[in-house]
Amino acid sequence: MALRKIVKHGDPVLRRKCLAVKQIDKEILRLIDDMFETMYDAPGIGLAANQIGVPLRLAVIDIQENGKKSPIVLINPKVVELKGRLFEEEGCLSIPGFLAPVKRYAFAKVEALNEKGFPVTLTGEGLLSRAFQHETDHLIGKFFVDRASLLKRLRMYGAIRRYKKTHPW
Q1: Is the pTM of this model over 0.70?
Q2: One of 37, 88, 90, 135 is an active-site residue; which one?
Q3: Residue 128's closest CA among 169, 82, 159?
Q4: pLDDT value at position 69?
Q5: Dihedral of the CA atoms 103, 136, 98, 124 (nearest 10)?
Q6: Who's near 79: CB < 8 A, 6+ residues apart?
């Protein structure tokens, strides 16, 4: 396992749609291990492969309920059901130190492959639902601030620019 550098806001890899993982081989398994190590070190609750510069449809999540690790691997994930509404602050490892309120769905169902290549269907509410949505957004080139209204989005991007001037990454 190795720590990887987290790509920051402004890098074009974060705005591109990621490519499907075609084969789960030793390289992909090593990438998954590196992603977990990088996410835990950051610390964060989720990390998409493009956040470490690898444009593949792969994300890892661990919301660590009750302080216990519960790692989730999502290969080629697809959100298939969303319900309810949440409006809470959200952050991102690619925009360190910046938080903003974002509307998300309270419940999400995701279909993906696990690290063994088996199809899985996962459901989550609250924080896990938000993590599913946040990480799958990364895989289509979206940031959490892109989910805000135009006016709020413009304000947030202005705030991000100002933040970057005083907190260079």
Answers
A1: yes
A2: 135
A3: 82
A4: 94
A5: 60
A6: 108, 109, 110, 132, 133, 136
Q: Is residue 88 annotated as part of the catalytic site, yes or no?
A: no
Q: Exposure of 150 by Cβ count < 10 A (0-12 exposed, 13-18 middle, 19+ buried)?
A: exposed
Calpha distance 88→134 (Å, rounded)? 13
What is the extent of the structural domain holding 25? 12-166
Residue 80: give its domain's CATH number. 3.90.45.10
Write out pLDDT tens, residues 27-68: 999 999 999 999 999 999 999 999 999 999 999 999 998 889
Among 3, 96, 1, which residue's Cα sits nearest to residue 52? Answer: 3
Q: Are strands 95-104 and 107-113 parallel, antiparallel or unpaired?
A: unpaired
Per residue in 96-110, pLDDT (tens digit) is 888 888 899 999 999
For residue 3, tell me if it sits in a domain.
no
44 falls within a domain = yes
